[in-house]
């Protein structure tokens, strides 16, 4: 029988965290799944861990590839094609899943093509931060698709899509261009397809502890293992989801407290902008009225110029006719003598 879900886990050098990551999959409420451990030039330690995991559970498979460019994104296409189910899930080799993760997202995939757990991450101090977004909401999707902004609220961990949609979209995994995030680059391309239908779960069922933030990039492998073990204990506990829900709520309230002053400043700034816009609108209306008055005056002046031009032409025609008449030619000498006499009359006596 084919599995209901295929979970792809890219692997490279996380030998100490990978067993805990896979363990949270084995504890899922939905047990009809397969795990595809996607090797991107794995270390000897990781290879040993993977071989042990495959021996322990037949649902786990190892897809072994040499080290590829960047994070080996191109191999993820091979994993999608090797999957035995239409539901493709993704998980990093140092993140964790809560027991209802597969169940939640499989339900969403009944009506959607690309879905995610409520997205966010955990800081080293244990506080939660969220990416408040809903993949079914066009307002949330718009900044993800906008090439002008660097914004993303969808991650590898916690995301799933239909393989049929992936093939229909034709946007296969490829090496990520420089300066972009692999998840953002790939899923944004898929989300532009007309058949895209997104959805986001109402709860966080995937725990992300990103190695690239909050100073974790300087941690030792042991520090990383200790942190993940702490959260693994939370995940496998009977009340694990309740604990995560409470911590998520606290994190959201903390974020709200941090954001509220900025929102107030933004509202004040927007009010000032609206007042300035209103003033500019008033000035524009005044200028428009003034322009209409000037245009009316200009029309009157243009009409007057046209009339004067016609009158000048009429007078010029009359003058030309008079100059060409016989009487004008006959009296020309008299007019000349008259001019001379007038000028002499104006000289002083001497």
Description:
With 350 residues, the protein is of the alpha/beta class. It has 2 domains: 5-237, Alpha-Beta Complex (Spore Coat Polysaccharide Biosynthesis Protein SpsA, Chain A); 259-343. The chain has 11 helices and 11 strands. It has helices at 18-26, 44-56, 74-82, 101-108, 138-145, 163-169, 182-191, 221-236, 240-323, 326-330, 332-345; strands at 5-11, 33-40, 60-65, 87-90, 96-97, 114-116, 120-122, 128-130, 159-162, 198-200, 206-207. The protein has a 7-stranded mixed β-sheet with strand order 3-2-1-4-9-6-10, sandwiched between helices. Helix 1 (18-26) links the parallel strand 1 (5-11) and strand 2 (33-40). Helix 8 (221-236) crosses helix 9 (240-323). The longest helix has 84 residues, at 240-323. It is elongated. The model has no long low-confidence stretch (mean pLDDT 89).
